[in-house]
């Protein structure tokens, strides 16, 4: 769908997902790595746990559908070559520290001079300006200042970040949105522009719905309550918190009990089911789900008592049993899937979501997540595996008109 | 000269309920698209009744509707509000007429619902051949459970997002409440922008199937590959990383105040030690190399705790960052509202709201554009511009308009 566009991708692991998304949508994305390979190739996990820059699964995951070249943009000849590439490009993606590209003479003003139509998108922890612009912002720090960290975890322990760091994948997706708006804008105004994407703001967007409402309207800071993330209004307008994630026999299920008309059918059926299994339903037996709201509860402890009854019931079943039954009785429940579960989850299998990608060098194929959106017209989806180091040097530089002999010279000088 | 906005000539009909669809439309409306939000008073967006509410309502009025924070937060963009009751055949006819005006229709009903109204993509295409329709749903438009009702709470579980955080000795922890609602909109907006550009070049419209679950799973692609290649599932491990130490969240002076610190390289470790005054233990062989520090991270964390607790989170952050060590205060709602960096980007913008009063709205874009500014406005009220849309855009005469009001079409 985007095959008429060329993207130069200078990002490190903060921005891979941005170029991948454009590449999977058809754009000719050229990943530009320093000679020897991108530092992000050292990020694990690795294929068969062999630490090798050609076996990083993180690299594989977020660099599909790209071509790969090496180029040292810190050398004068490399910079010149990069500018030649920019003349052929629609988009340049980068995730260096603010000011780095300017210092090399490759900032947006310089690139605009060689190609007025070029769109430059920068992905950084805090943006190109402001008091934090030079702050280091690895995942956990960006999450801290973006507000998502404070609300996660148990009250008796420190705030908790994800074991799988993914703040920059979120920022990258915001950056793609900005890049595509700019691309469309170019058809209106006839020139490119500069996009300054901030992980802090991306994360703020991620958490703000929960955090800002209570702060803006009631001056309450949203705190962490473990799995009890759903706020309910109990007696005297006090807040209590109910779980959104529950343990069962073999894992977890996602569920938040909603009272009132929308939850009535499912809640009633759930209680009937508990009774039929001989489970002691305690106070739930006296509940009229249609009319009742949480204000009948006087304290968090009372809420916990009700929810403990449910929790002990769920522990008797597997997540699949609970999910199946819930769908039957109209209770809104989500089964908590691991990557292993997903690969056989009927909905995803039926839709052909997962994509097998060929890795000839490894003599195997690997399962990747497929497209997040399907289009009724226009090709999309993973085109090929992530590039090897310098895999497309000859191809790309020849397209640029560079004779093979010159490539050899550049290689000798460490430019490519 | 007035700059033209990116989507200035684009017309959108917004039928989206709840978060995701509206978060998608937001980018287009804020960057210039003219958007008509169609909803019905008989069956309004559930976000209009979700707490918290602004504390401005008077007894007897519906407490939510125009005062619900989630609705307000999700719609800080210019829209025209049209009330239409789709249970009335004449409303469907009017809607079809509106489709001839539109470039894009965004809908988030259960798959099959639009079809029942005679408003499936194939139907709309007959009315407007190059229409772009974006259907956004939890499980996608096809498949055995496509029609199963689900909100972000449930879909976050299905997309694996509830298995990626936790302490090693406790069950996993949700990293957000309706996480897919904030992870998946970007893919929807990307698809819509791509479809608009494709139409500009080829003249072809299309139908987009945006699946929240599938969009969210893309964020954990490395975990999928780790299972595919190594049959490994992630083991949650608190705040630790295998390639950094100290790496965690440490207590500071004050009530529930914390700072996040992350030390990756030897150089950063040296700077970290200098900032904390190079106590003897920093030269301990247990912490000599990154490997040692990772291996002995429990003891290291205890020692770091003893230092951080003497200072405010702001002090630790400033001192560490000045020395080139990554550190950030763990911001709560109040901290965020006063954050100088967010403020620098004009993140919080105050707007008047007829029911809520003046309050801050939230810039949705995690990016700024050098040639376009996002326009932030208070959310549209239900049916706020019904008369304008009916008479000016649909071209109804005053008599026809009054007649249809009496028939309850605009409810």
CATH architecture of the largest domain in chain A: 3-Layer(aba) Sandwich
Q: What does the main sheet of chain B amount to?
A: 6 strands, parallel
The CATH top-level class label of the largest domain in chain A? Alpha Beta
Here the CATH topology of the largest domain in chain B equals: Rossmann fold
Strand arrangement in the largest pleated sheet of chain B = 3-2-1-4-5-6
Largest sheet of chain A: 6 strands, parallel
Number of helices of chain B: 18
What's the end-to-end separation of chain B, in Å?
Answer: 42 Å
Helical content of chain B stands at: 25-40%
- Terminal residue distance of chain A: 31 Å
Shape of chain B: elongated
Average predicted local confidence, pLDDT of chain B: 93
Q: Can you say what the CATH homologous superfamily of the largest domain in chain B is?
A: Crotonobetainyl-coa:carnitine coa-transferase, domain 1
Beta-strand fraction estimate of chain A: 15-25%
CATH class of the largest domain in chain B: Alpha Beta
Order of helices and strands of chain B: EHEHEHEHHEHHHEHHEEHHHHEHHEEEHH
Q: Per CATH, which architecture of the largest domain in chain B?
A: 3-Layer(aba) Sandwich
Secondary structure class of chain A reads: alpha/beta
Q: Assembly state here?
A: heterodimer
What is the fold named in CATH at topology level of the largest domain in chain A? Rossmann fold
Question: What is the string of SSEs of chain A from the N terminus onward?
Answer: EHEHEHEHHEHHEHEEEEHHHEHHEEEHH
Features:
heterodimer, A: 416 residues, alpha/beta, Rossmann fold, formyl-coa transferase, domain 3, 6-stranded parallel β-sheet, 3-stranded antiparallel β-sheet, 15 helices, 14 strands, 38% helix, elongated, B: 411 residues, 2 domains, 12 strands, 37% helix
Task: Explain what this protein looks like in three dimensions.
The complex is a heterodimer of chains A (about 425) and B (about 400). Chain A has about 425 residues and is an alpha/beta fold. Chain A has two domains: about 5-205 and about 350-410, Rossmann fold, CATH 3.40.50; about 230-335, formyl-coa transferase, domain 3 (2-Layer Sandwich). Helix content of chain A is about 40%, strand content about 15%. In chain A, a hairpin with a 3-residue loop joins strand 7 (about 230-235) and strand 8. Chain B has two domains: about 10-220 and about 345-405, 3-Layer(aba) Sandwich (Rossmann fold); about 245-335, formyl-coa transferase, domain 3, CATH 3.30.1540.10. In chain B, helix 2 (about 70-75) links the parallel strand 2 and strand 3 (about 80-85). The radius of gyration of chain B is 26 Å and the shape is elongated. Chains A and B meet through helix 2, helix 6, helix 7, strand 6 and helix 8 of A and helix 2, helix 6, helix 7, helix 8 and strand 6 of B.
């Amino acid at each position: 769908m985007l095959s008429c566009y060329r993207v130069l991708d200078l990002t490190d692991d903060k921005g891979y997902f941005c170029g991948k998304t454009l590449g999977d949508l058809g754009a000719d994305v050229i990943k530009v790595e320093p000679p020897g390979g991108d530092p992000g190739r050292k990020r694990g996990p690795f294929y068969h746990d062999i630490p090798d820059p050609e076996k990083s699964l993180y690299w594989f995951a977020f660099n599909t559908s790209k071509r790969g070249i090496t180029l040292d943009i810190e050398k004068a000849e490399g910079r010149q070559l990069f500018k030649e590439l920019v003349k052929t490009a629609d988009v340049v993606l980068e995730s260096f520290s603010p000011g780095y590209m300017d210092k090399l003479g490759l900032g947006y003003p310089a690139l605009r001079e060689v190609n007025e139509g070029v769109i430059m998108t920068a992905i950084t922890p805090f943006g190109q300006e402001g008091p934090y612009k030079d702050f280091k912002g690895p995942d956990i720090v960006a999450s801290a200042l973006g507000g998502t960290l404070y609300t996660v975890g148990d009250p008796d322990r420190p705030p908790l970040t994800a074991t799988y760091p993914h703040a920059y994948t979120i920022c990258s997706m915001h950056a793609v949105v900005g890049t595509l708006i700019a691309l469309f804008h170019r058809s209106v105004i006839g020139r490119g522009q500069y996009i300054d994407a901030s992980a802090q703001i991306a994360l703020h967007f991620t958490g703000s719905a929960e955090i800002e409402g209570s702060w803006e309207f009631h001056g309450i800071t949203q705190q962490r309550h473990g799995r009890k993330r759903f706020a309910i209004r109990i007696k005297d307008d006090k807040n209590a918190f109910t779980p959104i994630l529950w343990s069962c026999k073999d894992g977890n299920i996602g569920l938040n009990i909603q009272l009132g008309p929308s939850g009535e059918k499912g809640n009633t059926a759930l209680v009937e089911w508990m009774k039929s299994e001989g489970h002691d339903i305690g106070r739930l037996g006296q509940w009229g789900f249609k009319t009742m709201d949480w204000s009948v509860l006087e304290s968090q402890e009372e809420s916990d008592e009700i929810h403990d009854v449910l929790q002990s019931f769920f522990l008797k079943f597997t997540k699949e049993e609970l999910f199946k039954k819930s769908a039957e009785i109209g209770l809104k429940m989500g089964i908590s899937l691991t990557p292993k579960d997903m690969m056989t989850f009927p909905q995803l299998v039926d839709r052909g979501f997962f994509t097998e990608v060929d890795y000839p060098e490894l003599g195997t194929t690997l399962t990747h997540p497929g497209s997040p959106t399907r289009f009724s017209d226009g090709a999309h989806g993973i085109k090929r595996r992530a590039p090897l180091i310098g895999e497309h040097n000859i191809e790309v530089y020849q397209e640029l008109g560079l004779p093979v002999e010159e490539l050899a010279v550049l290689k000798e000088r460490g430019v490519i | 000269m007035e700059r033209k906005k990116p989507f200035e000539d684009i017309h959108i009909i917004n039928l989206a309920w709840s978060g995701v669809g509206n978060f998608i439309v937001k980018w287009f409306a804020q960057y210039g698209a003219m958007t008509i939000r169609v909803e019905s008073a008989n069956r309004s967006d559930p976000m209009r009744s979700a707490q918290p509410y602004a504390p401005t309502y008077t007894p007897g009025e519906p407490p939510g509707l125009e005062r619900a924070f989630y609705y307000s937060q999700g719609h800080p963009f210019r829209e025209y509000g049209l009330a239409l009751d789709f249970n009335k055949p004449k409303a469907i006819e009017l809607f079809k007429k509106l489709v001839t005006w539109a470039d894009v229709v965004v809908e988030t009903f259960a798959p099959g619902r639009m079809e029942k109204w005679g408003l499936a993509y194939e139907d709309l295409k007959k009315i407007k051949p190059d229409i772009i329709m974006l259907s956004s749903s939890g499980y996608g438009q096809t498949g055995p459970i496509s029609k199963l009702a689900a909100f972000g709470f449930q879909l976050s579980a299905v997309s694996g997002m509830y298995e990626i955080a936790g302490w090693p000795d406790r069950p996993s922890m949700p990293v957000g409440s309706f996480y897919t609602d904030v992870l998946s909109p970007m893919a929807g907006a990307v698809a819509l922008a791509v479809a608009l550009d494709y139409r500009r070049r080829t003249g072809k419209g299309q139908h987009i199937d945006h699946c929240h679950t599938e969009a969210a799973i893309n964020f954990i692609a490395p975990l999928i590959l780790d299972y595919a290649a190594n049959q490994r599932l992630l083991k949650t491990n608190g705040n630790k990383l295998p390639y950094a130490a100290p790496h965690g969240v440490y207590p500071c002076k004050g009530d529930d105040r914390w700072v996040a610190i992350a030390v990756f390289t030897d150089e950063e470790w040296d700077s970290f030690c200098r900032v904390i005054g190079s106590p003897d233990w920093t030269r301990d062989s247990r912490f000599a190399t990154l490997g040692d520090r990772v291996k002995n991270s429990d003891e290291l964390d205890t020692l770091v705790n003893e230092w951080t607790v003497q200072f405010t989170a702001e002090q630790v952050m400033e001192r560490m960052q000045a020395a080139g060590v990554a550190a950030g205060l763990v911001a709560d709602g109040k901290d965020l509202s006063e954050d100088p960096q967010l403020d620098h980007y004009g993140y919080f913008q105050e707007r008047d709201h007829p029911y809520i009063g003046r309050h801050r709205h939230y810039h949705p874009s995690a990016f700024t554009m050098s040639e376009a500014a996002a326009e932030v406005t208070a959310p549209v009220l239900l049916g706020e511009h019904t008369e304008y849309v009916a008479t000016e855009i649909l071209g109804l005469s005053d008599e026809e308009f009054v007649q249809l009001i009496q028939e309850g079409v605009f409810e």
